[in-house]
Amino acid sequence: MRILASGISGGIGQAFRARVAECHPDWVVEGLARRPNADDHRFDLTWPLDRMVDALSQLPAIDALLCLAGADILSPPLRHAPYLERLEALYRVDVAGTVKTVQAALPRLSPGGIIILMGWDRAGLGKAGEAGELYALAKGALTSWGKSLAKSLGERATVYVVAPGWVQTRWGDALSPAERARIAAKTATGRWQTPDEVAHVLESLLTFPRGLSTGQVIYVNGGDVLPS
């Protein structure tokens, strides 16, 4: 299996690559990143579509596309930026950037391939606070688009939206132990999810029998949010 993954340099992207290396040495992960290492490809979700298409034009056919990249509005410098500036960052990366990535990669996706988008477990239920409002707006839009994309593509591709809750990536690592514990205490399991757990779900979806499910939102939150 050949997989194209944006956001490969993030916590979940790195965990996914490590899991593939350990469990599926025959799989190939083509990573996309703004600041790529020697094994990855330079790719920026704020690029115009034609530049994205050019960047992917030399890659071989892929079996799966993982859209893991997202804007971080919880860490500096965006953490203290004006509300609409944070909204614009989320739109450019999480919404428009993801849509353009799918459009650029779709011609390279083999028939019956898999597309996985990254949502948020509270996108449809809401969360108080400016960050909650902004993430719900961006991830809610992306989730609805993913469901519509699944209907549009039909048998051409399977589409999933993975919706994590509190995942301890770099932002979580930067919090104080007391703040991490406070957040964990509010969850159903009393702990944060790990990037490796999300990576395990991504791997499982790539091996799930195709054609049985598409347009589904897969919640990865220990039951912290149970949408109807």
TrEMBL record:
<keyword id="KW-0560">Oxidoreductase</keyword>
<protein>
    <submittedName>
        <fullName>SDR family oxidoreductase</fullName>
    </submittedName>
</protein>
<dbReference type="Pfam" id="PF13561">
    <property type="entry name" value="adh_short_C2"/>
</dbReference>
<dbReference type="GO" id="GO:0016616">
    <property type="term" value="F:oxidoreductase activity, acting on the CH-OH group of donors, NAD or NADP as acceptor"/>
</dbReference>
<comment type="similarity">
    <text>Belongs to the short-chain dehydrogenases/reductases (SDR) family.</text>
</comment>
<dbReference type="InterPro" id="IPR036291">
    <property type="entry name" value="NAD(P)-bd_dom_sf"/>
</dbReference>
<dbReference type="InterPro" id="IPR002347">
    <property type="entry name" value="SDR_fam"/>
</dbReference>
